[in-house]
Batch of 2 targets.
Target 1
Amino acid sequence: MTSPTQKVMIVPCSGIGKAYGTVSREAAYAVTEDLRPTKTRLVPLALLVLGDEDSRTDIASYPVITIDGCKLACAAKMVRQSGGTVVQEFAVLDGYRRHKDLKPQGIAELNEGGQKLACVLAEEVAVVVDGIMSRNHGGENA
Amino acid sequence: MPDFLEITIDKFTFKVATDRFYSKEGVWAKEEKRRVRIGLSDFVQQRSGDVAFAEIKPVGTLLAVTEEVVVVETIKVNIAYLSPVSGKIVEVNPAMTVAPEAINQDPYGTGWLTVIEVADWETERARLLDPQAYFESMKRQAEEEVKKP
C-alpha cells in the first residue's frame, strides 16, 4: 500500500436485478461522483471477477471500502481474494435495519426509500473515507 | 448439538435437525418440559433470504394452532409464519430485536424465535411431522424450487 494514501477504492455489490444491490451501487456512485470525487475511485466488482489487471492493482495499492447488498458479501470476498485490503465493510441490509422507514424496492428504478437509504449509506461511507485520508495524511483532510 | 439429516440440491445444502418436530411450513417445535421452543428450519431460512426484521408476538399472547406467531421480513419477502402448537408465549428470543440474522446463521440454535407453554405436548406433537417426514417434504419442495426457471 502506498503512503500517504491518495485514494480510497470503493467496491460495490454487483447484484444486478436486486433492490439491495442497486442501493449499494447508488451509494457508491454518490460517494465517488458527488460526495468525495477527489478522494475515491469506484472499482466495478465485475472487473475484479474478470481479473482485470488495472483493477487488481488499484485494490492492492489503496485501502478499500466495500458495500455489499446481502450477507454473501461478494464484494468483500472478491477484494480479499484479489489481494486487496478491506478497511471497512458496509452492508445495505445493516443500513436498512438502522433505518426501517427506508425500505428499498424496485430494481431498474429504486423507490424513494431505496434512494434515501443509498444517500444515508453514502454519507456513512464518506465519513469513513475522511477518516482514512485523515489518518494517512497526519490529520490533513485533503 | 443436534444430529442432522442433510441433502445437497443444486448448490444448496439443507439440514434438518433430528431432535425436534416440524410443521409442513417448516416451523420447528422442540419440547422442553411442557414448554416448546420454536424456530424456522434451515430450508425455510435459506429460501426466504437474509432476515432484516423478525416481529414476534409478545410474551403472554395466547396462540391457537396455525395462528400467526411471527412476521419475518427478508431482503426478498415478508412472510407470516404460523405457530405449530397452541399455548401461551412465555419467552421471546431477545436477540431477535438486535440481531435477527441469527435466524440465518444458526436456525436450530441461537436463531430460535419463542417459547410456548403447551397444555398437552402429546396432542400437539401428533399434528406435526417427524424429522424424516419433514426431510422428505422439504426435499420435494427444494427440488421443485430448483426446477423453476
Target 2
Amino acid sequence: MKTLTFRGGVHPQYFKDLSVREPLREAPLPSPAIVPLTQHIGAPNKPVVKKGEKVKEGQLLGKSGSFISSPVHSPISGKILDIKKAFHPALGFVESVFIERDESAPRVTYSKTEDVEVLPPKELIEKIKNAGVVGMGGAAFPTHVKLSIPEGKKIDTLIINGAECEPYLTCDLVMMTRKTEEIFKGIELIVKILQPKTTYIAIEDNKKAALFAFKKARRESTHKVIKEIRVVSLKTKYPQGGEKQLIKAVSGREVPPGKLPLDIGFLVHNVGTVYAIYEAVYFNKPLIERVVTISGDCMYRPGNYLTRIGATLDDIIKNYGIEIYKDPVKVIVGGPMMGFAQPHLNAAILKGTSGVLFLSKEEAPEFEEGRCIKCAKCVDVCPVRLVPTEITKNVKEKRWAAAKQLCVTDCMECGACAYDCPARIPLVQYIKEGKSAVMAMEGKP
Amino acid sequence: MKKLTISASPHVFSTVDTRGMMKSVIMALLPAVAASLYFFRQDAAGVIISCLAGCVLTEYLIQKVRRVQVRISDLSAVLTGILLALVLPPSIPLWMAFLGGVFSIALGKEVFGGLGQNIFNPALLGRAFLMAAFPVALTTWVKPFSLDAVTTATPLGLAKFEQVVTPSMSLFLGNVGGSLGETSALALLAGGAYLLYKKIIDYRIPLAYVGTVLVFAAITHLIAPARFSPPIFHVLAGGVLIGAIFMATDPVTSPVTPAGRWIFGVGCGLVTMIIRFRGGLPEGVMYAILLMNAITPLINRMTKPKRFGVTNDR
C-alpha cells in the first residue's frame, strides 16, 4: 500500500510499544476531581453550580452564552468543595471546580437515543454542543463550531486523523483498534452533517493494527457511507498528524497561511473526537472521560487508562497502580514534542490531554545551548518551509521586522527544528517569542 | 519525587550533536588519510601532524586568551587541521604546514568569533595564505612512493602545460602527483558515500558541483578534443572531489536553503572550470569555493523557501 507524506519532518524514537500491548484499563474514580471551567479555545464559561451543592455525574458545571464555547460537566457524583483558581497544565491558573466524590452515589446511566437515523443535522450538532465535545487531539477547539459550516462554504473532503505522530502516545491507536465500530458510527454522523464528497481515515504505517481494524470493519459493513471511506496509510514521521501536513499528505494541497482547512474545502477530526461525537449523539453522554496514555521509562505498567476529566497527576500516581520506580526529571502532559513539562503534580487531566509521561534524564536530556553551525537541518525539517536559524538569529537581536519578513507567524510550533538541531538551540522557543512579538506589533492578541 | 525540570518543548532530541557531526566527517576522511599515508608515507604523516598541531593549539590558545570556554573538544579544529593537510603538497616544509594551521584557525575562524561565525572555509583560507606566501613550496609536487622526493607535475599541470592526459584509472586509485588528499578519487568517494548515508551532508552541493564540471568539460571537449581534456579527467584530477564532498559542503560557509545549495554547487563548478581553462593556474577549486563562500549570505537571502500554502509568493 502506498504511504502518503509531506516534505520535511523528523523521525524521533517512538517508544509506542511501552504502552500499546497493555489492555485499556478503566481508571479508579478521582477524589477530589479538579475541573477547569474552561477547557476549550473560545469564550470562557461561567459556573452554574455553587460551593456546597451536590452534583451528579454528567451534570452541567459551567457554560457561556457564546457560540464559540463549550460547556463543562461533572466527571463524578459528589459535593462541590470550592470554585477557585487551580493550576492548569498549560495556562497557569484558571477558575476550576473542586468536587469531592460521594462513594455511595449510584452509578449513572445515560439515556440511549432511539431515533438517531432520523435526527436532522441541526439536532446532531446541538447534541454534540451540549455534550461539551471539543477537539481531543490537543487543541480543544469546540467541535460543534467546526461542524457548523458558514454560509457559502462547502466541505469536499473529510479526513479522520489517526496519525498519532507524537512519540509514546497510543491513546488514539487503542481507540482505533478497540472502538472501530463506534468510530465508524461517529464518522457516519459527521458525514450526515457535512455531506463531503470523500472521507478518509489517515493512519501512520507504524499502526498496522489500526489500519487492519478499519479495513476489516469496512469490509464487513453494509452501510454505503462506511463502504466508501478511504483508509489511507501515512509515512511514519513527525508531525504527520499536524492538520495542514495531514491535508498535504492526503491530497497534495496546502492550506494557505492564516487560513483554515475549511477555506479550501477540508475538515479534519481526530479519532478520539469522533468517538466522543458517537457517545454524545447515541447516549447523550457528555465528555467527562477520555483515554490517556500514561507512559515513560520511570514506571511499571505503562498503558492506556480510561480516565475521568479532573483526575490530578497526583491521583494517577497514587491510585492507578503504576508505581514510579525511578525519579523522573520531567513529567510531561501531552507528547514529548509539544507537551508541557509540569513543575509539580497538581495539574488535572483535561479534555485535550492525550498523555502523561514520566521521563528520566536518559529519555528527556537537558542540554546547554551551543552555537549554530548553519547546518540547515532545521531548514530541511521545517514542515512549513521556514528558515528557523535565520528567524532565531533575528529574534535574539530583537529585530522583529526581519522576523516578520521571514514569516515567523507561519510557525506551527511543532518543534521539529529544535529536535534536530545538533547545537541544541531551542529554536522553536525563540520562534514562539518572535511570533508573539510580531503579533503584538500588529495588534493581534 | 525529586525536583522536576521545567522547560519548553520539545523534550526529546535527535542523537546527532555538533561533535557527532564533526566526528562523522573525520571518519569519512579516514580513507583519504589512509591513502595519503600509503602513497606519501612519512611525508604525509608529518604534514597531517603539523597541521593538526597548528589548528588545535591555536584554537586552544585563542580561547584561553579571550577567556571564553575552550571548545577544542567539539573537534572542529581537528577537522580543519585534517582538511588543510589534505590540500597541501606532501613535500611542504613542516613549519609551513604548522603555520597554515595557525592561520586557518586564527584568521579563518576565531577572528570572526569562532565556530559558526566565519565567512570562508578555514582550511581553504589557510591554504590560500600559504599559496600567497610560499608559492614555490605550494606548487612543488612529488611522485608517490618516491622517498627521495622525485618531483613531478600534477595531472592538471601536465594536461594544461604539456598536453599529457593521465589515465583515469591512475587518477581513480590515486597513484599520481598532487596534494595529500586529492590523489585518490576512490578514497574520497567512499567518504562521501558515508556522509550521504549518515545524512551529515546534503547531496545537492556535491551533485551540482561535480555535475557542472562534467557538463562544462563535456561541452568543451566536444568542441575541441585536442585542446580540452575529457570530462571524467576533470572530475578525477585535482581537487574537485575533495572540494565538492568535503569543502563546499562545510555547513558554516555554504547556503542553508535547498535552492541556495544548488546555486552554490553550480557556481563552484563554473568558477573552477573557468580558472582551469582561462586562469594562469592549472587548478581552481580553492578560489572557486572561497569565492562562493563570499556570496553565500547573498544566496541565502535570494533563495528563501517558498511559503507553505502560498503559490507565486514572489
